[in-house]
Model the fold of this input.
Amino acid sequence: MEYSMILLIGIASFGYAPLKLLHPLAIVQGSHVKVNTPDVPQQFDKLLKRDLTNYFQDTYKETVTVEYELLRAKPTQVGVALPKYYIWVKIYRQISRQKALIGEGAVKVAAVEKTHFTVLNYLSIAELKKSPERINQVFPLPVGDKIRLRLK
Done:
């Protein structure tokens, strides 16, 4: 152990980049994201819109359209759990040829086997304003900061 530390310090002192050793769990996490998240951006978008639309049609009990924006480009991966994405969503109803905003808020979804997304949490703007402490209970702090900016 003592010699390997000296060797590592010696290598670093010659200007070599430090050796990056991947923890086995990091390898498993990366592969878990790859196994569950659609590879092609168009497929990702198509599946996410489909599943968000289905979720909100069930919630509102009417035909809706959904627009979304990722609050974090990369998924959050903890251990071997499903990769999570954080989204700002706007829900619209079609009235004649115009769409009317009927809901808006923050959503946490999980990517599953490259085939679908499962909505884990949805907090509407009203819920977020009424109970702002829920933001940090459901979303990571950097995502929570982005959500709070939208509430102003």
About this structure: The chain is about 45% helix and 30% strand. Strands lie at 65-70, 84-95, 98-112, 116-124. Residues 41-60 form the longest helix (20 residues).
